[in-house]
Give the backbone structure.
Amino acid sequence: MLFAALTVLVLFIRFFIETDYTDFGDKFGTYLGDWFGFLIIGITIIVVAVPEGLPLAVMISLAYSVRKMLAEKNFVKKLASCEIMGGANNICSDKTGTLTMNEMSVTNLWNGATQGTPD
């Protein structure tokens, strides 16, 4: 844990030494992304070193995913739904735009010239 904190501290110190502060206001979003990346590196070191840090990293990544989806105007009520949708292969919708559940069933069979039901 100490090594992760020291790594993040060194990254921040190096960032502040190498940064040109004349255009700090214009590039604040870029700098904020760099700072977030430093924190992610620290969390990654903790997860690799201590397996107990894995649930924390998963929750942080899910929360980050929800925040990104909110920026794209996708409202998510449950964090677990991001993980579930990550495993979806097909999303089917009809003319009204309603989504189907992830439960597929065969209702009709068609084999060339013959048609039947899955009985």
User: Anything to note?
Assistant: The chain has a mean pLDDT of 76. The first strand starts at residue 109 and ends at 111. The helical segments are 2-18, 28-49, 54-71, 80-86. The two ends are 60 Å apart (CA to CA).
